[in-house]
Inverse folding.
């Protein structure tokens, strides 16, 4: 598919290279509503688990869920580096 990179300033060079790499499938999913009555059921469940009414879209919120779904954590305002370090810490400690 053709993408007009200039039409979307957020589409960085990294994504352009990944999209154009031969043999790599990229799955495009539809937008999911995070807040409101029509929010996606997964977000409704996660927010209810932590007694959160609405997520502030200006602050990163990361939900970490074990593969079995038996443990869920929420991290508000965490950077990608914070989450990476947190996951590495637990992988090293718990495995």
């Amino acid at each position: 598919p053709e993408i007009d990179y200039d039409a979307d300033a957020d589409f960085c060079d990294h994504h352009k290279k990944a999209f154009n790499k031969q043999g790599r499938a990229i799955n495009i999913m539809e937008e999911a509503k995070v807040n409101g009555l029509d929010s996606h059921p997964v977000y409704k469940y996660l927010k209810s688990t932590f007694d959160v009414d609405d997520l502030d879209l200006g602050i990163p919120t990361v939900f970490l869920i074990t593969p079995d779904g038996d443990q869920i954590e929420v991290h508000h305002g965490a950077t990608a580096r914070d989450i990476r370090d947190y996951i590495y810490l637990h992988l090293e400690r718990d495995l």
Notes: The chain is about 35% helix and 10% strand. The mean pLDDT is 81.
